[in-house]
């Protein structure tokens, strides 16, 4: 096997990966950097798919404190407050850099300054955007700057394993998808920026190549994971029959601008769930409401609810949301003049690898930024804080890598160790006539949707874990044939393995959290329980077993309303360690 | 009986199956058909996609001979037989998957990245209607899908031609008050062999652009700039007014 050596290996070419590459390069131009990405440079991933925009404090009437409080409230105080503060604090400088150095140009107000639009769950209109397809501008321009610096990029090389030697991450095993062969990359530092992506649900939004690879790899390598139960569903995923467009997101700005949600009876049902904020409640609340309406039999012909923006005026809608109007027209409806059927869609994973503010994971040599990291958003992410996270942390972790990477030790593994892992991922070729991974993926998506989705309970979650164990057995019966070059069935098998691994962690953590908070809702424990559960669930693989434990949230900057100081000390001491296997 | 369409695919392996019967519903796209074939009929078929909503530009192919994004092309109206093939001028990786080097070698040549002017330190104040951004806005949403390159007649005859997308990008930067590199970029796009003078205005790029952009318009603007420069020389550009950012946010 070919084994290459670099100083810094960046996995993923979304907002986090590319911004990190630029900053690492600019901080230390002599660093040998390699970007390896599952899809095409800057085209793959979800930063590219960002529609609505980017939360940032620019207006003197707004403040970092307000954005911070909104973020914690939205996250139901489960956030790592230091990470959330970095998000809020570094966002203005990130927008400044995007506009003045990277080459982006965002929409303007009448007075010519940067426009900010309303999003849900925010006390100020602070979402910067380029029309309603903001991610194109951000990713095209970041890509341009990567080209400018001549940073090497391997497209369609997917990481299948992080390699660990003596407790350090020493690089990654990559599959060159085009050639169908493995390549090893030894690196002093490895940045995981593969963008999570909960595509294990029947209806989901992320780009189709994403399959939570980063989380599965980090977990297998022994890194500490957190908040895995927290999966965000976006309330307005488009429904387009059996087509792959189903699950794609109609952006949050529609609700921000005053869009209304109706069930099939024509009731504006948000009045029953959040009479004050109505459609502008946070995503967790609005998604669950939609789901409950659908489950109660008040759904439309495709099993969805309806978003209606026509009362805002057809011209306004066409001018403000041209991308959304076009997408809806593609599937045969008119957003400007009537209701469009939508469903909650799995959108974003708040859980991920535990990091410090400079992206260090618990595994030396492994850095993480973007959606692969956990902690920034707590139990629910605000719309507009996702692309802010990937760019803010990509930038910041890139700086840290520029300063640190060259001095990190280079670990070595014998060629046999690389070969052994490659053989593992080739095992599907040894069988004939086995299971079809595409069909198993369908089953997984159905299982997770029904048993570990928007409304959960103990019995379902237990059944989910049993179902997942069965799927894992059947994964071992999957067979792949034909040429290894660009073999999509092999990709499906590898995707399935990542998704099962991460689904197990989601379901196990969801079973443990016996309360409802943010995007995690337990029908058997429908209340938020601050006394017991202002805690984060952590998980880490050690040997063959999964260590699971909780730690009280550290309110380093802000306490939840009503939280008493004394209680906090008590909770700090009451750390509960619940060992168990997943 | 569900309606079906016959999909005929240009495969890289001459022995591979080429014809497939695909059931079709009203909302399904060419991309959905490819998934169906790969999942259920022939697992060895290769194609590429990512976003599936026309944002990433990964899924360009020839559909009945014309450049299209597979994810935004409805299958049903295409008729009983649909022929699919990889984009022209791009080296083929496998089946419908092509290598984007053909696109990037041209794109890179125009220095497609902002080189910031030292005098512009903060975001530019650009009221709608001020004339600062209107022309650029019209050409901004390029997704680098490569359809225009594949559709360009000139590229077939003059392989060095930079092609529509790269020239469109070059114009956006030349017209950008923030950029410092307009002179070097104009030199590249003014090159007799590779540059704007090769364009015959056949408009094929305009026809196929999934974002409704008009690279020919950008090319015409570039020509005008080149002519103006030849006659009047380079004019210094005024420094635009800027939105002051707090010191800490720079
Ligand atoms: C439809 C949609 C709309 C959204 N809209 C908004 C919005 O309006 N505002 C907002 O704030 N947030 C939004 N988000 C969320 C936002 O996109 C994400 O929070 C953020 O962009 C993630 O960035 P990232 O860099 O971590 O990952 P991504 O941008 O997803 O990039 C991941 C990269 O890793 C690559 N990769 C994956 N697996 C591997 C592997 N095994 N090996 C190597 N590379 C790999 C991928 O191909 C890709 O290049 C939206 C998300 C979606 C899905
Ligand atoms: S898959 Fe992204 S444009 Fe078609």
Question: Overview of this structure, please?
Answer:
- The complex is a heterodimer of chains A (582) and B (250).
- By secondary structure, chain A is of the alpha/beta class.
- Among the domains of chain A are: 234-346, Flavocytochrome C3, Chain A, domain 1, CATH 3.90.700.10; 430-512, Up-down Bundle (Methane Monooxygenase Hydroxylase, Chain G, domain 1), CATH 1.20.58; 532-581, no CATH class.
- Chain A contains 17 helices and 19 strands.
- Chain A has helices spanning 15-27, 64-74, 81-102, 134-149, 213-220, 253-256, 270-273, 283-295, 314-320, 322-330, 386-404, 415-426, 437-451, 458-475, 488-512, 530-533, 565-573, and strands at residues 2-11, 33-37, 54-55, 116-117, 127-128, 153-155, 157-165, 168-176, 181-192, 225-226, 231-238, 260-262, 305-308, 340-349, 352-354, 366-368, 373-374, 535-542, 545-552.
- The longest helix of chain A is centred in the C-terminal third of the chain and has 25 residues, at 488-512.
- Chain B has two domains: 4-98, Ubiquitin-like (UB roll) (Roll); 101-249, Fumarate Reductase Iron-sulfur Protein, Chain B, domain 2.
- In chain B, 31% of the residues lie in helices and 12% in strands.
- Chain B contains nine helices and seven strands; from the N terminus they run E-E-H-E-E-E-E-E-H-H-H-H-H-H-H-H.
- In chain B, strands 2-1-5-3-4 form a five-stranded mixed β-sheet.
- In chain B, strand 3 (60-63) and strand 4 form a beta hairpin.
- In chain B, helix 2 runs parallel beside helix 6 and helix 6 crosses helix 9.
- Residues 49-52, 54-59, 69, 71 of chain B line the site of FE2/S2 (inorganic) cluster.
CATH topology of the domain at 234-346 in chain A: Flavocytochrome C3, Chain A, domain 1
Distance between the termini of chain B: 63 Å
Helix content of chain B: 25-40%
Strand content of chain A: 15-25%
The stretches of 5 or more residues of chain B where confidence is low (pLDDT under 50) are none
**Largest β sheet strand count, sense and barrel closure of chain B:** 5 strands, mixed
Spans of at least 5 consecutive residues with low confidence of chain A? 570-582
Average residue pLDDT of chain A:
95
List the secondary-structure elements of chain B in sequence, H or E.
EEHEEEEEHHHHHHHH
CATH class of the domain at 234-346 in chain A: Alpha Beta
Strand order of the largest sheet of chain B: 2-1-5-3-4
How far do the termini of chain A sit from each other?
34 Å
CATH topology of the largest domain in chain B: Fumarate Reductase Iron-sulfur Protein, Chain B, domain 2
How large is the radius of gyration of chain B? 21 Å
Total domain modules of chain B: 2
């Amino acid at each position: 096997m070919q084994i290459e050596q670099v100083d810094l290996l960046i996995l993923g070419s979304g907002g986090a990966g590319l911004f990190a590459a630029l900053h690492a390069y600019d901080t230390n131009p002599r660093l040998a950097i390699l970007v390896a990405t599952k899809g095409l440079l800057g085209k793959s991933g979800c930063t590219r798919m960002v529609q609505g925009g980017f939360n940032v404090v620019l207006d003197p009437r707004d403040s970092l404190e307000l954005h911070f409080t909104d973020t914690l409230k939205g996250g139901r105080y489960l956030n790592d407050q230091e990470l959330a503060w970095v998000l809020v604090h570094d966002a203005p400088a990130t927008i400044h850099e995007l506009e003045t150095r990277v080459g982006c140009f965002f929409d303007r107000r009448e007075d010519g300054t940067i426009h900010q639009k309303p999003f849900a769950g925010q006390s100020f209109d602070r979402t910067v955007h380029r029309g309603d397809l903001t991610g194109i501008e951000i990713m095209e321009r970041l890509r341009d700057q990567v080209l400018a610096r001549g940073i090497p990029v391997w497209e369609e090389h997917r990481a299948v394993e992080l390699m660990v030697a003596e407790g350090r991450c020493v690089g990654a095993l990559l599959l060159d998808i085009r050639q169908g062969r493995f390549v090893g990359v030894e690196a002093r530092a490895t940045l995981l920026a593969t963008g999570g992506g909960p595509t294990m649900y029947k209806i989901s939004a992320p780009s189709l190549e994403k399959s939570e690879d980063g989380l599965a790899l980090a977990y297998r390598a022994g890194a500490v994971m957190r908040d895995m139960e927290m999966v965000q569903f976006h309330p307005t995923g488009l429904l387009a029959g059996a087509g792959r467009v189903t699950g794609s997101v109609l952006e949050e700005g529609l609700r921000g601008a005053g869009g209304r949600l109706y069930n099939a009876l024509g009731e504006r049902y948000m009045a029953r769930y959040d009479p004050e904020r109505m459609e502008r409640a946070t995503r967790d609340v609005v998604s669950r409401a939609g789901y409950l309406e659908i489950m109660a039999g008040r759904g439309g012909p495709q099993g969805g609810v309806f978003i209606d923006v026509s009362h805002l005026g057809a011209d306004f809608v066409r001018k403000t949301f041209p991308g959304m109007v076009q997408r809806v027209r593609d599937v045969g409806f008119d957003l400007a003049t009537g209701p469009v059927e939508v469903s909650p869609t799995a959108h974003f994973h708040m859980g991920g690898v535990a990091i410090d503010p400079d992206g260090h994971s618990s595994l030396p040599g492994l850095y993480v930024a973007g959606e692969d990291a956990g902690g920034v958003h707590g139990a629910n992410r605000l719309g507009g804080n996702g692309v802010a996270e990937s760019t803010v942390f990509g930038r910041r972790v890139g700086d840290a890598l520029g300063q640190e990477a060259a001095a990190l030790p280079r670990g070595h593994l014998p060629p046999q160790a690389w070969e052994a892992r490659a053989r593992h991922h080739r095992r599907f070729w040894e069988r004939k006539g086995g299971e079809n991974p595409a069909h198993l993926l369908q089953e997984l998506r159905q299982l997770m949707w029904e048993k570990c989705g928007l409304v959960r309970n103990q019995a379902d979650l237990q059944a989910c874990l049993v179902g997942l164990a069965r799927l894992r057995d059947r994964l071992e019966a999957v067979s792949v044939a034909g040429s290894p070059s660009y073999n999509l069935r092999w990709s499906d098998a590898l995707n399935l393995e990542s998704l099962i691994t991460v689904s197990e962690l989601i379901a196990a953590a969801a079973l443990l959290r016996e309360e409802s908070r943010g995007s995690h809702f337990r029908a058997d424990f429908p209340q938020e329980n601050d006394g017991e559960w202002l805690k984060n669930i952590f998980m880490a693989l050690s040997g063959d077993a999964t260590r699971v434990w909780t730690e009280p949230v550290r309110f380093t900057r802000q306490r939840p309303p009503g939280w008493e100081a004394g209680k906090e000390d008590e909770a700090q001491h009451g750390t509960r360690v619940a060992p168990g296997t997943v | 009986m569900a309606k079906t369409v016959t999909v005929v695919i240009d495969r890289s392996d001459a022995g591979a199956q080429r014809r497939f019967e695909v059931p079709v519903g009203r909302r399904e796209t060419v991309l959905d058909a490819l998934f169906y074939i790969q999942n259920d009929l022939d697992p060895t078929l290769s194609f590429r996609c990512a976003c599936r909503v026309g944002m990433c530009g990964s899924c360009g192919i020839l559909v009945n001979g014309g450049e299209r994004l597979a994810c935004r092309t409805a299958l049903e109206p295409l008729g009983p037989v649909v022929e699919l093939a990889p984009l022209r001028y791009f080296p083929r990786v496998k089946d419908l998957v092509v290598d984007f080097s053909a696109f990037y070698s041209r794109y890179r040549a125009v220095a497609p990245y902002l080189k910031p002017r030292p005098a512009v330190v903060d975001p530019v104040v650009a009221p709608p209607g001020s004339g600062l951004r209107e022309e650029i806005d019209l050409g901004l949403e390029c997704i680098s899908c490569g359809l225009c390159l594949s559709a360009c007649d000139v590229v077939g005859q003059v392989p060095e031609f930079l092609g529509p997308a790269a020239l469109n990008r070059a114009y956006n930067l030349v017209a950008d008050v923030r950029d410092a590199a307009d002179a070097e970029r104009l030199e590249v796009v003014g090159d007799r062999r590779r540059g704007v003078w090769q364009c015959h205005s056949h408009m094929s790029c305009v026809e196929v652009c999934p974002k409704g952009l008009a690279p020919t318009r950008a090319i015409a603007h570039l020509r005008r700039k080149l002519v103006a420069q030849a006659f009047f020389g380079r004019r210094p550009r005024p420094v635009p007014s800027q939105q002051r950012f707090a010191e800490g946010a720079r």
